[in-house]
Design a protein that fits this description.
single chain; 486 residues; alpha/beta; Aminopeptidase; 2 domains; 4-stranded antiparallel β-sheet; 12 helices; disordered N terminus
Length: 486
């Protein structure tokens, strides 16, 4: 999904006086119990993570990954509803009753072409096969471990309310969470939590980029390229004119805008005037309104390109993400629990592994950093996530946890390697503990929940949320591709 961090952040920094310790009000004994529970679950969670890592299934095809997680949730006593929101690999696992309803998100899709062994050199398990280059094999099991720890306290009568784990497919493609939200699966949730693998540990106080994901198609007329080309109309001409127009527009958009594309189809052989061409494109900006403005201009470029080439054009929106709505009150609660837990400790062997990866990728050999960063001064990076949409529907708290060496290229083989060994496992366990401790605060203290919700209501006042997805079930550009550069 990202550049280095779990998700991109807005330009600028946060400059606030933050007293996070005041936001960790939950019973320390209960927090120690959930930490102990996650330690007890450690071997099972690692096994789950390694299974998902080995399956390495791409967006909407995560059949085995979804099943092992849903089966594990049922084994732990959760009520599991499978195949929700028109996606066979989406599920919701619930335990408890009544309010508050606290949700936690889990992802499990892999990326195409990133197969890799758990080694310090680039070495695929299977050439061309998918791999977990964004660490989602850790995300789902880690969140489920946190949910299970809370379930045990509810079951013992020590907490009251409902804990709900959302198994969310296709984050790297169509954004499965958006379809789950469209079907009302989050409508009764009080607060939602999520985490993401990263090369640093921090409670996120910054946003992600909004995104629109679309296909541009051109339809022309075939003819013999030598015998009678005047009888043909080249769809590739239309496509080339479109990309030229898009690239000319780069000078005349705000610096925050990003546009990137791949050509998926551009003719079969040179001696036939191509009657069909297809391009897959994304446009991003730090705000949804900025994306909307640029996308309107993109539509006109497609129309103009088709007119010049004498062909027909068609744009199909596949999906898109809102930017992340940051809840500072919730970030303080997360940060307090990160501070309470302290840094992730690494062995010499793990640091050596990390430095070897940094050496192999041309990065400074800094090793691993598991010390929580402060809330202030978080820097801008690029990336998008469907967690952003959820954050505009319900208050959402997000934490990033170290699972790979500093400055590691994301969506690349080093992340896959670390996700399949102890570096990734340690980050996953730390994330589970952080989230579980934070949920103790949320379940126990209605004033924290009220403050989080009050901030959310003020931020969303007057907003009418409208998802950037088409009607019907999710659609991928092709069955073996997923959004590889969120």
């Amino acid at each position: 999904m990202r550049l280095r961090r779990s998700y991109g952040v807005v330009l600028g920094t946060v400059s606030l006086v933050l007293t996070s310790a005041a936001f960790a009000t939950g019973d320390i004994k209960k927090k120690e119990e959930v930490v102990a529970s996650i330690e007890k679950q450690r071997s099972e969670l690692i096994k789950l993570s390694d299974q998902v890592w080995s399956f390495a299934e791409t967006a909407l095809l995560e059949t085995k990954s979804s099943k092992v997680l849903a089966d594990h949730a049922e084994k732990q006593g959760f009520k599991v509803e499978r195949g929700v929101a028109g996606m066979p690999t989406a599920f919701v696992a619930s335990f408890g009753e009544g309010r508050p309803v606290i949700a936690i998100l889990g992802e499990f899709d892999a990326l195409p072409g990133l197969s890799q062994k758990a080694t310090t050199v680039k070495e695929p398990l299977e050439s061309g096969a998918p791999g977990h280059g964004c660490g989602h094999n850790l995300f789902g099991p880690g969140s489920l471990g946190a949910a299970t720890a809370i379930k045990e306290l509810i079951q013992a009568g020590k907490l009251k309310g409902t804990i709900r784990f959302y198994g969310t497919p296709a984050e790297e493609a169509v954004g499965g969470k958006i379809y789950m939200a469209r079907d009302g699966l989050f409508k009764d949730v009080d607060v939602c939590l999520a985490w993401h693998p990263a090369d640093e540990t921090l409670a996120d106080t910054t946003s992600s980029q909004a995104l629109v994901d679309f296909i541009v198609e051109f339809h022309g007329k075939a003819a013999h390229a030598a015998h009678d080309p005047w009888n043909g109309r080249s769809a590739v001409d239309g496509l080339e004119l479109f990309t030229h127009g898009l690239n000319m527009m780069r000078e005349h958009v705000k610096p925050s805008v990003r546009m990137h594309y791949v050509i998926q189809e551009g003719g079969l052989v040179p001696n036939i005037v191509p009657e069909y061409a297809k391009l897959w494109c994304w446009v991003r900006d730090w705000k949804r309104t900025g994306v909307d403005d640029v996308f309107e201009r993109v539509k006109k470029i497609a129309e103009g390109a088709a007119l010049m080439a004498g062909v027909e054009s068609k744009i199909t929106v596949l999906g898109g993400d809102y930017e992340m709505l940051v809840n500072m009150t919730g970030a303080k609660v997360l940060n307090a629990n990160l501070t309470w837990l302290g840094p992730i400790e690494y062995s010499k062997e793990e640091q050596d592994f990390a430095r070897a990866i940094q050496r192999a990728t041309g990065m400074a050999e800094k090793g691993l950093n598991g010390t929580p960063k402060p809330l202030e001064g978080q820097e801008a990076e690029g990336g998008s996530t469907d967690v952003g949409d959820i954050s505009w529907i319900i208050p959402t708290l997000h934490v990033s946890v170290t699972t790979a060496p500093q400055d590691t290229p994301w969506h690349a083989w080093p992340v896959v390697a670390c996700g399949g060994m102890s570096i990734g496992h340690k980050g996953m366990i730390h994330a589970a503990k952080t989230l579980a401790a934070t949920m103790v605060d949320l379940f126990e203290d209605p004033k924290i929940r009220e403050a989080i919700q009050a901030e959310f209501k003020e931020q969303t006042k007057g907003l009418v949320y409208k998802a950037y997805i088409p009607g019907g079930p999710p659609i991928l550009p092709s069955s073996d591709q997923a959004r590889t550069a969120q």
